[in-house]
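Subject: sequence -> structure tokens, single chain

Hey, anyone have a minute? Need the predicted structure for the following. Not urgent.
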Amino acid sequence: MPDFDDDGKIWVRGSVRPEYGVRVGDLYFITGMEESDNINCFIRDKYLFADIHDTGKQYRIIRRFPLKLDPECPGTLFSGFTNTKHGDIMALTYRNDGVEEYGVEGEMYSDENASVMDSVRFIQLAGWK
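Reply:
Had a minute. Here:
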């Protein structure tokens, strides 16, 4: 069972396409996941973590969203979100101040065995407790 309540696409004003997002309670988060990515979202220590991974392109990014940040980005629920009434929302995005990111790609991706590393180990590699 995921740590979030719902997920789907959010259309952000001014963007050319909707972006993947999750809902945790009354908060919406735009994770920055691309179409070819796999994602694992979970709550840990007052943060939403988005572990984004593409084995074909050999990169992995983990983003840490503080649950206390105020959403600043207006958007509209677009598709998905089967447990949420569609409408206009405010979201926190991976581009907002206070959202942290750590990533590996290329040689470091291979050296760290990022393709098989669990999310908790990846958090430790990022230097987050």
